[in-house]
Amino acid sequence: MRYVLIVFWMLLCSVTSAMAQVSIGIALPGVSIGINLPMYPQLVRVPGYPVYYAPRLNSNFFFYDGMYWVYQRDNWYASSWYNGPWGLVAPEFVPLFILRIPVRYYRVRPAYFRGWASDAPPRWGEHWGRGWEQQRSGWNQWNHSSAPAPAPLPVYQQQYSGNRYPPVVQQQQLQSQNYRYQPREAIVQQHYQEQARQRAPAPSQREQPGAPQVRSPTQQDVQRSNPPPIQQGGPAAPRPQPQQRAVQRATPTQAPPKQKGPAVQAQRQQPQQGAVQRATPTQAPPKQKGPAVQQQNQAPKGGQGQEKDRQKRE
User: Fold this and answer.
1) 3-state SS string over 155-171?
2) Cα–Cα distance measured from residue 93 to residue 188, given in angstroms and rounded to the nearest whole number
3) Which residues contact 224 (CB under 8 A, 6 or more apart)?
4) Nearest to 46 by CA among 105, 4, 97
């Protein structure tokens, strides 16, 4: 029986290690870790560290590199919002400056912290084993005089408390709009990016079915609806579009403007007078006859009478 328990424990440890290598954080949106903050907590900086802690909370609550960190029930949790949801962080992926926080700034100290120096960090290697200490070797070796500056606190979250605390889908949107800081430590960057990916809205929420899709006009649509004006004179214009050709062909058929000045009217009257003059010769001459014409008309009549008398005599 004892051998079976040992084998079971070894298998469980191997599975836990494999899960830690696959994912550095597991979101727990529906699981309570024992912390429920009704409002934004008061945060005070740890002297000489780029870390803040919450002295008035009855929990090990910290802020570092743009994220909140909680040590609860022998586990580390992280979140970009002060009241979760929280993501479980494996011991291999806890940031260095979180590991280096002195024992005195832990408000709820576990039993195994007893006897450890208050101005030194917890003995994580002794607690998590030699394998962890070999993997995170040198985690407590750093120059205290060259600590980086702390990240700015996301104080915009103070207005979201109680019933106004945003759901998971809105948290990422509010964070991107109001907090421009990006984590500097590589491990924190991975946590931050993974939580942002998990909190992003699903494709079904981004595009609701049945909603009308409004397409913004493209450049081709604008060119089709608004053809470029036709340039007259100056350098040669580019080859006109089909609509422009239609406009150019239709232009000569348009009637001239009806407004005419005196000069235009005079010019248009001259051709009309010429037309009248050309038509005048085709008209019949007047039938008025003078004396000379009457004599000419009478002369043939006299000749015709003499010829008739001459025929009678014969």
Assistant:
1) HHHHHCCHHHCCCHHHH
2) 9
3) 243
4) 105
The Cα–Cα gap between 257 and 248 comes to: 18
pLDDT per 10-residue tile (average), the chain, 314 residues: 52 43 44 85 97 97 97 95 94 97 97 95 95 94 92 97 93 93 92 77 51 43 48 49 48 50 46 44 50 46 52 55
pLDDT the model gives residue 258: 53
CA–CA gap between residue 157 and residue 40 (Å, rounded): 7
Contact 101, 49 (CB under 8 A): yes
Distances (CA, A) of 247 to 130, 198, 236, 301: 86, 58, 18, 75
Tokens of 45: 């900086």
pLDDT score for 250 = 44
Contact 84, 35 (CB under 8 A): yes
Q: How many Cα atoms sit within 13 Å of 300 on the Cβ side?
A: 4
SS3 for the chain is CHHHHHHHHHHHHHHHHHHHHHCCEEEECCCCCCCCCCCCCCCEECCCCCEEECCCCCCEEEEECCEEEEEECCEEEEECCCCCCEEEECHHHCCHHHHCCCHHHCCCCCHHHCCCCCCCCCCHHHHHCHHHHHHCCCCCCCCHHHCCCCCCCCHHHHHCCHHHCCCHHHHHHHHHHHCCCCCCCHHHHHHHHHHHHHHCCCHHHHCCCCCCCCCCCCHHHHHHHCCCCCCCCCCCCCCCCHHHHHHHHHCCCCCCCCCCCHHHHHHHHHHHHHHHHHHHHHCCCCCCCCHHHHHHHHHHHHHHHHHHHHHHHC
pTM for this predicted structure: 0.58
